């Protein structure tokens, strides 16, 4: 997809690359046949973090969640503390985009995923200040 970097369940955090999952053993990936675009594939991060090295500042983060085949339920914290989504559930075939701001100072941007059936289709990160 133009404008996106494909991230798979096997993409462990790498300082040279500047992003990845902190524990890939807690992430699986799926591709739904017949689907297209950002909804076609996703990661299932069960209790692990996705880390992105960004300069200090305020960022607008937008997460696309959902699955064509099954209901999902995702909880998300940022940088270990701030709860931004609590049990955000979708029906099978439903996709939602949730957007929030995150302040990053002196550490990478960390998105900590949990929930009953988390699904992450896309993450957009834009510096807002």
TrEMBL record:
A Pfam match: AGA-YXIM_GBD
InterPro entries: AGA-YXIM_GBD, Galactose-bd-like_sf
Domain Beta-agarase/YXIM esterase-like galactose-binding: start-end pairs: 2-70
Protein name (database record): G-D-S-L family lipolytic protein
Lineage: Bacteria, Bacillati, Bacillota, Bacilli, Bacillales
